[in-house]
Amino acid sequence: MPDGRRGTRRVAVGGTQSVEVLKVLNTCHDIEVASERLYSVFAHAHADHPTVAALWRKTAREESQHAAQFRLLVGAYGGTIERVSVEYDRAASALRDVQALTAQAQANPPGIVEALRFAVELEERLAGFHAGAASVFNDDRHRKLFRAMMAADDRHTDALREMLVAYELDR
Fold it and tell me: How far apart are CA 24 and CA 32, in angstroms?
């Protein structure tokens, strides 16, 4: 059921562990949505640099795809996930941090190099909150599927690093 935020779906099930698992999955989903928003803010802030703006837009789309992975996990929760490997409080704290950073970037957009440095650090910090890392799967096939999806995330972090190196060399 929607909770007023685009793309957010909440699922209610019985049992304390089930509720905790779903809280973590939903919060990880929200981290991805918040990251998408942050990269969209960066794309807007750097619109006069087409190559950088395109990278921000691409990264935002990838974060949207990660959010979709969590929607898939939440929908298939019972037969797919044994447990989560992330504590809810840690996920909630990370979500608040990304939301605060997005508000800060909207109010005072960082320069390209600063934004790229920040994005690389953020991606490294949030890697443990991605679907394949935060979930312990019942079935090895599901684990492999979500690990393969995570490999694409490593590539977008690499793209951010490469752009950062290119801009640092130009300085």
Answer: 12
For 151-162, write each residue's pLDDT tens digit.
666 678 889 999
Kindly report, residue by residue over 28-55, the tens digit of the pLDDT.
Answer: 899 999 999 999 999 999 999 999 999 9
* Cα dihedral 63, 69, 72, 76 sign: negative
Q: How many domains does the chain have?
A: 1
- CATH number of the structural domain spanning residue 21: 1.20.1260
Q: Which long-range contacts (CB under 8 A, 24 or more apart) does 167-170 make?
A: 167/52, 167/112, 167/113, 167/116, 168/113
pTM for the whole thing? 0.80
45 is in which domain, residue-wise?
Answer: 16-170
